[in-house]
Design brief:
This protein has twelve helices and eleven strands. The protein has 390 residues and is α/β, with parallel strands linked by helices. The model has no long low-confidence stretch (mean pLDDT 94).
């Protein structure tokens, strides 16, 4: 696992110029598995007698094949290789022919861990005292960028999307300052459901001295290909992905950052030693080894999305259904969107009111569920709207 070990002085290039000096000089924590991972292991103060219990499905018959008494691999090499093979195949690349390699992949607790780590690595705190670095966001967008920036006392530069949810690239480039260290682009967007063209990402990445982060939580539902193909083209593009959406594994909390090796090295240096547990790693690996279920589920959800879009458009009180590259639809009603959302939720069908977001007045976001769930939502939507406007 030599290529994945934590190193204190291997970072060069863009990351070395942008990262915080204290992070670059950090002597990373060396964990018990950095040097030896097999043999009689008496180095990590684990309980060699075994775990006190196991997951429910492994209790009878008893199966501790994962050796839960031992710490997990801190670098998740098997999982990284599986992700590289999957994503490279989608863009017609291989690890040896321009594609991503394990050194380009960080594995974390969902995408949120990666967002927080990147801010901690590249942005010096100090916003509340009038200094420090900043991130750039393009609302309406995913709320955790702002939350993580605030927690880390980092400034937030805001360049809104257009009403059609496109990037305002000239305005973004004009707003960049020396303090701008990270630019977050959510594609497909949340709550917008709109993908950003790779040509836009290329233009921004080639024009700024900052890390451009493309958050692709919903990319498997999109007609725009993944931006992972840009990672080896630019030294300042990082792509975030997750198993929570198309893979249907939100409960295991597994996400990835895919980027230049020097950026990923810093993330490995700063992360907690054993951030991804064995149960998560095992389930994630099984999903990446068996993508037939993934592909079938995507096909079904896209069919259901098209059907629900058609049915929403047919409702006379729905003013607009936004095009979607995600597993949800954003739509605008004529009035009373918040009351509509709350009443339907009180009756057991929960969507999300988005009318407090920029450009989303009177909008509701609904996830594409099963065919039966979608039908029930549409039925309640129509019935409740009639009640509220009678």
């Amino acid at each position: 696992m030599t290529e994945e070990k934590k190193e204190a002085s291997s970072t060069t290039g863009r990351a070395a110029k942008l990262a915080r000096p204290n992070v670059l000089s950090l002597q990373p924590y060396r964990c018990a598995r950095d040097d030896y991972s097999s043999g009689i292991l008496l180095d990590a103060n684990e309980n060699a007698l075994g775990p006190a219990s196991l997951p429910t499905n492994s209790l009878d018959p008893y199966d501790n094949g994962m050796e839960l008494e031992r710490y997990p691999c801190p670098y998740q090499l098997t999982l990284k290789r599986l992700l590289c093979d999957h994503r490279n195949a989608q863009v017609g690349q291989t690890a040896d022919n321009g594609g991503i390699q394990p050194k380009n992949v960080f594995v974390g607790v969902g995408s949120d861990e990666a967002i927080d780590l990147l801010i901690r690595i590249f942005c010096t705190p100090g916003n509340t005292s009038g200094g420090g670095d900043a991130i750039m966001i393009t609302p309406p967008t995913y709320g955790m960028y702002k939350v993580c920036a605030n927690v880390n006392d980092v400034g937030i530069q805001t360049v809104p999307l257009t009403p059609d949810f496109d990037l305002q690239i000239p305005e973004m480039l004009q707003a960049v300052t020396p303090a701008t260290k990270l630019i977050f682009i959510c594609s497909p967007g949340n709550p917008t459901a709109k993908s950003i063209p790779l040509s836009d990402v290329r233009l921004i990445a080639s024009s700024v001295n900052a890390i451009v982060i493309v958050d692709e939580a919903y990319v498997d539902f999109s007609s725009v290909p993944t931006a992972t193909s840009l990672v080896n083209e630019f030294d300042n593009v990082v792509v975030l992905q997750t198993l929570s959406k198309a893979f249907g594994m939100a409960g295991i909390r597994c996400g990835f950052a895919i980027g230049p090796a020097d950026v990923i090295q810093l993330m490995n240096n700063v992360k907690a030693p054993y951030n991804v547990n064995k149960l998560t790693s095992d389930a994630a690996a099984n999903a990446l080894k068996n993508t037939a279920t993934l592909e079938e589920n995507i096909r079904v959800l896209l069919e259901e999305r098209a059907l629900m879009e058609k049915q929403l458009i047919a409702l006379d009180f729905v003013e607009k259904v936004y095009p979607s590259d995600a597993n949800f639809l954003l739509f605008r009603v004529k009035q009373k969107a918040n009351e509509l959302y709350k009443t339907i939720a009180d009756r057991g069908i929960v969507s999300r009111f988005r009318g407090n977001e920029l450009h989303c007045n009177e909008c509701i976001r609904v996830t594409i569920g099963t065919a039966a769930e979608n039908s029930k939502f549409l039925e309640q939507l129509e019935d409740v709207y009639k009640e509220l406007t009678a």
